[in-house]
User: Which sequence fits this backbone?
């Protein structure tokens, strides 16, 4: 199967290159494109939510299974089998919402507002997401 069956079930799909797309993640309330989809030359389809959803949750949300994307393998995180499988520009697209989160809190700090515990943990989460993005991105 090609990536088409997956892409046809996603919202706000944008082709970012040959065999590469970003879209809204169907597994969480996604404001920007957090999901990166890649079709490899051998036909396998990789997907990754940069907000942290498991691949299984993304597939469940659109009614597909790992067998639909990658017939030889059942279950597991297929993205982890590829070293740095995602294009750096796509990773940045998927993390752009996180930059806005940081800006929002930085603005509050510059106004002298104290950050709540929730705000501090949300900032820590944004930092984690950028670090994770750097780990899975290739130039
Ligand atoms: Zn997600």
Assistant:
């Amino acid at each position: 199967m090609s990536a088409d069956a997956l892409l046809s079930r996603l919202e706000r799909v944008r082709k970012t290159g040959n065999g590469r797309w970003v879209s809204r993640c169907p597994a969480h309330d996604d404001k920007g494109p957090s999901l990166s989809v890649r079709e490899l030359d051998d036909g396998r389809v990789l997907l990754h939510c940069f907000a942290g959803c498991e691949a299984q949750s993304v597939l469940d949300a659109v009614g597909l299974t790992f067998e639909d994307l990658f017939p030889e393998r059942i279950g597991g995180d297929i993205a982890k089998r590829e070293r740095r499988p995602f294009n750096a520009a796509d990773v940045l697209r998927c993390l752009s919402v996180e930059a806005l989160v940081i800006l929002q809190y930085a603005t509050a700090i510059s106004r002298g507002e104290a950050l709540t515990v929730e705000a501090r943990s949300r900032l820590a989460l944004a930092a984690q997401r950028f670090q994770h993005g750097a780990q899975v991105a290739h130039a």
Q: What stands out?
A: Helices lie at 4-7, 55-62, 66-69, 88-110, 117-136.
